[in-house]
Amino acid sequence: MLRVLSKFVLRMFGWTVEKDLPLKEKYVLVGAPHTSNWDFPLGILGMLAMGLRFRWVGKHTIFKGPTGLMLKSIGGIPIDRRIRSSFIKQMVELFNTEENMILAITPEGSRSKTLYWKTGFYYIALDATVPIALGYIDHREKKIGVGYSFFPSGNIEKDIEIIRRFYEGKTGRHRENQGEIRVHTKEIKKANNSFKPTQ
User: Fold this and answer.
1) pLDDT digit string, tens, across residues 135-191
2) Rounded distance, CA 172 to CA 174, Å?
3) What angle in degrees, to the nearest 10, is found between the helix axes of 185-194 and 156-167?
4) What does the alpha-carbon distance between residue 73 and residue 1 come to, in Å, rounded to a whole number?
5) What predicted TM-score, i.e. pTM, was given to this entire model?
6) pLDDT tens profile 48-70
7) How far is Cα 39 from Cα 111, in angstroms, rounded to an integer?
8) 148 and 22 in contact (C-beta within 8 Å)?
9) Percent helix, strand and coil across the chain, each rounded to 5?
10) How many CA atoms lie within 13 A of 88 on its CB side?
């Protein structure tokens, strides 16, 4: 019922849903571009329209009182972004214990323009040995979808280039807040030196 209703609501506002989902029960779902408050409700509707049950992460400060309980009931996981390593470890452990797990993350980390993507999504997928699926909300074309997936190789520089090419032409609601898809040089060195692909 929710799937039908979500499709109806999206069609009513001119949106279409496309999907090319990974043939896996577990994956990290990247959400980009992220430039507007509208991305969250549109993302929820899009995932429901695709028949997906997913988890998502948010700042721990919004998970308070009745609102926090409601957010957790729709898949929310509170995190303290100041404790980055603990977050990655927690998500990997969650993947290891769950039979089915779709974890949605917005690597831009903010609706404002950012210089670099946060790389937690990459480390989680690499360490949990799950694919990265690329989801998008394209406001110019009014399309929501999941269009490509791949296993991280351990070479973050090469894999970020794959991601960058996929998102070319996909436009956020506020284009001026849409930054380049790149990671900091120190993150490239850390990933290439410390993380190796599973054999």
Assistant:
1) 999 989 999 999 889 999 988 889 999 999 999 888 777 776 667 777 766 666 666
2) 5
3) 130
4) 18
5) 0.82
6) 898 888 888 877 788 888 888 88
7) 9
8) no
9) 40, 20, 40
10) 14
